[in-house]
Specification:
There is one protein chain. The protein contains 1 helix and 10 strands. With 140 residues, it is α+β, with helices and mostly antiparallel strands. A 3-stranded antiparallel beta sheet has the order 1-2-3, with no helix packed on it. A 3-stranded antiparallel beta sheet has the order 6-7-8, with no helix packed on it. Strands 4-5 form a two-stranded antiparallel ribbon. It is elongated and about 50 Å long.
């Protein structure tokens, strides 16, 4: 009985597992998510926020522009501070307890209610939104 076939199968399995682990660890720039930096501000103007909706006039590939909007996802009021939800794809809820909500470039700012009844002026970066041919979309 020879041990070489068993070693060959074991070696092959180890090589496949090692290669898979290496490939999984390599970042893929083509795959982004809603935690990536936004870039819509580079090709959109008249950027506004209404509650949890971001709107802007965005440039199209043909040179024209289009008014578009998208819900801002993944942000909450955490005791007077805008904070990211653990799941960036969840609906935002900050608009329920914050007022004077504004946007400047990719920063959302608001005065948010604290647990003790006071309020706090706070801001946070809006993540993961791009202009895709005149439409605001989440990065893929």
């Amino acid at each position: 009985m020879s041990y070489f076939p068993k070693l060959d199968r074991l070696s092959s399995s180890l090589i496949l597992i090692t290669c898979g682990a290496i490939l999984a660890a390599i970042p893929n720039p083509a795959v982004a998510d809603s935690t990536s930096p936004s870039n819509y501000q580079n090709s959109c103007r008249n950027i506004q926020v209404d509650g949890a909706d971001l709107s802007a006039r965005c440039r199209r590939v043909n040179g024209g522009s289009k008014r578009t909007s998208i819900p801002i996802r993944g942000i909450e009021n955490r005791n007077g501070n805008l904070a990211y939800l653990s799941d960036a794809t969840d609906s935002s809820n900050y608009q329920n307890s914050c007022r004077n909500i504004q946007v400047s470039s990719t920063f959302l700012s608001a005065r948010c209610r604290r647990v003790n009844g006071g309020s706090n002026l706070t801001s946070i970066r809006i993540r993961g939104i791009e202009n895709r041919n005149g439409n605001l979309n989440y990065l893929r």
